[in-house]
Amino acid sequence: MRVEGTIDRRQALTYLAGGIVSTKNYITNQQEQKEIAPTPFEVVSLTFHEVEKSDQILENIYPLLDEGYTPLSINDICQALNGSLDLSNKKSFFITLDDGLKSQENAVVAASQAESAWGVNIPLLFAVMTQFNYYNDDQIPLTTPSYNDHVHEYLTKKDILQIIENPRFDLANHTLNHADLTKINDNDLTGELTIAQRRLSILYSEAGREEVPRILIYPFGKYNHHVLKTVSDLNFEAAFTTENDTHYSAKKRYRLGRIGRT
Ligand SMILES: [Zn+2]
Q1: C-alpha 89 to ligand 1 mean position (Å)
Q2: How many domains does the chain have?
Q3: Is residue 12 over pLDDT 50?
Q4: Among candidates 250, 235, 241, which has minimal Cα distance to 47?
Q5: Is residue 184 part of a domain?
Q6: CA 12, CA 199: separation in Å to the nearest integer?
Q7: Residue 68 contacts residue 14 (beta carbons within 8 Å)
Q8: Which residues are close to ligand 1, an ion, with C-beta < 5 A?
């Protein structure tokens, strides 16, 4: 079809797609976009694996609280990435726990100790694998560990449900099998991400929580261009790497950095 010279590119694309967009709507959309333009922000994201005792967490967060840093939840970070929360002038920190290890129950203890000492809520994001010994979604016994490598002790389904009964604690997708996403075929890549996400949703619903956030933590911190595109196509809100980077922005939403602690 012929596109008039006065029509802008966006309108032309809409016409070509078979839709009609009025000039009025276009202006409104532009204004909305301007109002919610997200600003880059800085977050000290700390990540832990084994937490032998709660002090390991406390000795990391007390100096930050002393210096006026605010603890963030994953929801705060998503809002800031989407432009509905401005964190650009704030000193903030964020805590993630990788792999669903049983010892991370000490992080829950630490959060409660810090809350009593400082009067602030300390949100935690647990990146768990959801293999659950290959049980079907609806047949996982409560005592089943989330993962099994015959090396570490992992949180069971019951442990995870107890953790997320507290709305300050959230789960992130860490795949079913701790898969290196850069080394598997497309079917497996989609399966590792979507089946794990469905299992997280089921856990949230069993704990009486709203829909689980769509957050991915790359196993081994590994991703490539194809993985980034898949994560975006599957509508994840954000994804975290193991790169030491505290600068967050909407542009980097699938490459958010974290500082390793244990
Ligand atoms: Zn991991």
Answers
A1: 31
A2: 1
A3: no
A4: 241
A5: yes
A6: 42
A7: no
A8: 98-99, 219
